[in-house]
Design goal:
This protein has 171 residues and is α+β, with helices and mostly antiparallel strands. It folds into two domains: 74 residues, 2-Layer Sandwich (Alpha-Beta Plaits), CATH 3.30.70; 74 residues, ACT-like. Chain A, domain 2 (Alpha-Beta Plaits, 2-Layer Sandwich). The protein has four helices and nine strands, in the order βαββαββαββαββ. The N terminus is likely disordered.
């Protein structure tokens, strides 16, 4: 999401390893709802071991006392591990699908923007194209802003996913 009035929100990204059982996501999200903390982004999927899922939760760092949330999450029985992922020490990505209006005169400009951002055209029709970009959330924000003047008909974003950076040998 784009910053408001130029102010950049400070987000905390939590990677939460949980048992892959019914109701776990509801309990985790409910913890935030009961405390009136807004979840900025939420993504969940099974890990390589189908017994576990990873939930990536992005929260506004200004309004959420992170230490309190972490303690409360740790009390949930199905939560196995919580890691805060700082932007400098993690790899973050977000996927965006967008259908954008095009005319014969603007189609090449939109396709050119895709090429410069590393996006792909997934579908083409009369008067519109559907695009895909998976990139750092800031770059996705920028690409969405560039597409806006062309007329975004619909957009879907996955929310942020993140993993810790790997240790580099010799550092």
């Amino acid at each position: 999401m784009s910053p408001v009035n130029g102010a950049r929100p400070r987000h905390h990204t939590l990677s939460v390893l949980v048992e892959n059982k019914a109701g776990v996501l509801t309990r985790v999200a409910g913890l935030f709802a009961r405390r009136a903390y807004n979840i900025y982004s939420l993504a969940v999927a099974p890990t390589d071991d189908e017994r576990f899922s990873r939930i990536t939760i992005v929260v506004d760092g200004e309004s959420v006392p992170l230490e309190q949330i972490t303690k409360q999450l740790n009390k949930l029985i199905n939560v196995l591990r919580i890691d805060e992922l700082s932007p400098a020490e993690s790899v973050e990505r977000e996927l965006m699908l967008a259908t954008v209006e095009v005319t014969p005169a603007t189609r090449s400009a939109v396709v050119g923007m895709c090429e410069s951002y590393g996006a792909r055209v997934l579908d083409e029709g009369d008067g519109a194209v559907t695009l895909c970009l998976d990139e750092h959330p800031d770059k996705v924000d920028g690409f969405e802003a560039l597409l806006a003047p062309h007329g975004i008909l619909t957009v879907q974003r996955t929310g942020r996913v993140a993993l810790p950076r790997l240790d580099t040998p010799g550092t």
